[in-house]
DNA sequence: ATAGGGTTAG
């Protein structure tokens, strides 16, 4: 049975025997003999070769094979008719043994046939070596085609050493662009990047005999655009060099390839190289379209490199590259993200061609309008975003994104009514809401304490066929955690899993954080196991909330388990981790380990913060060593250069009052005033308790006035202290005035 | 071009 492709090959050989050969050969080939002559010669020889090789009739074959009219192409056709490389190789050997010396060039076409046949067979490395050795031994000059085929065969057999040897020993006349392209492509495919680049270098030399062509360009670009191999891929820095080399020979990447290359470089944060690449192509005369410039503009936008963005736009103008709607879209988006909304609106005018001829005459599309509407919403210019919506309706139809941006804008502005109105409006206009619309509204309602409405809306939308995704569940779960409705949060987590929604890390992290904060460590551990089952890992923040949770539950072994796990996972503890640990150890009175942690965090290059010192101060206070706490407090301002804040003062004032050192506590209050650190309700509660013990009633009135001045609202603790104290001393009138926000110390009792 | 998350001291 002959396979279909094989049949095609045979057919091709019968139809185009001569051209097929001549096309690839450097051996001269006279096309003058008529087809009938060709046919009869070939047919006769083929006939004679049908018998077993040891019965070949030399007397009959010799005049036919070695006559003056026998062309190289005839010999090739004859060889191909033998059907297998083994038979062809025998024929080669036969001709070599029988050819008159002046006819030795006739071996080239026969070898051509041998390798052609071989390349169609299953590659046998052993046989290939045998053939190759024979060629070298007999010094048969290779045709370009046989060189190409040989390269391909050696490549298929992964014989890189032989490949390079072959190329280096190749007769210069045979080294054509086509042959070299095959070699480069083969070397790339085999991962021998350095050798391929070396050959390419040779190809691109100024006086090269085999200059690169578009095929070379495609091979090199294909390699440059391939995703990076773990073994060896072309370094980003080399990309520019290679493209430059090719461009010297007029070989340029086409628009798509150039754009892809720029995208690739920008994705890897190599914007500078992308910039150089684009400018090199422009400078050496390659065609550059707006698409490629757009790719670079996007990269520059991500780098916030406004200067280069403007330079590129100027360059486009200079090179007469017409910006398209995408170019303007990138520009407008960048300006919006930089909150330069008025500049963005100016670009809209510019593209429309305000004032006639100076304009670009590029029609803004729905994306342009959406970007601007979103930009206006994000700077709280909601009215203008609504008027832009009306304006855009003259030019294009608003879509789902348009309304999503507006709905989000009004949700963020706490105008849920307007958000719902826009939702109704989009439905009326036949713009179909999607899951983003759903999530925007649900999150808006959750953030404004309307979880019930959010759930109701979610159910209604589900009935209409819009399913929630992990974003929906994150909003609801976080909202339930925030109101400490942990059971509902867990219920929605289960609902999410059973609804077939695939959770992402964010929904896991939100729930783990909520559960840890609520002290539900068993639930948190369960969610952690689910997270791991989904193939995710914990990050520092997630470990921190868990460690904090276990600390609060005094589950020391779980804390160390977490730390161990962090180390194994290569997640470095950060300042939060250390602060949490130091606070926990301090509270437990384990000052030794706490100091060790302090040392360790400094060794890791982490600088203790006001929170760290607060934890240490708190620990000393808790364990009755207020003197040591005060010592650290004083060091904070002097040597440590971490000024204490309200919380630190509160801890100390509270502790000093508890050890009856109200004088010192009061002096800290004065210190706060001097340093401009605002006391809060907790500060006043602490000091009021202290002076209550000391019965310093007039000091209380003074402090109550200061509390009014500082706009510190009394809380239930304040109310408890003052009610108990002032009612006992008959000063309830002053308390009433105080609650109404009046000063009390100067007013006299009626 | 649009939507969601989290930690430490009192």
TrEMBL record:
Cross-referenced SUPFAM superfamilies: HCP-like (SSF81901)
Organism superkingdom: Eukaryota
Key words, A-Z: Repeat
Keyword Lipid biosynthesis: no
Segments passing through the bilayer: none
Each PPR repeat, start to end: 289-323, 324-358, 365-395, 399-433, 434-468, 469-503, 504-538, 539-573, 574-608, 609-643, 645-679, 680-714
Keyword Repeat attached: yes
Annotated InterPro entries: PPR-containing_protein, PPR_rpt, TPR-like_helical_dom_sf
Similarity field: Belongs to the PPR family. P subfamily.
Family annotation (NCBIfam families): PPR (TIGR00756)
UniProt protein name: Pentatricopeptide repeat-containing protein
Source organism: Acacia crassicarpa
Organismal lineage: Eukaryota, Viridiplantae, Streptophyta, Embryophyta, Tracheophyta
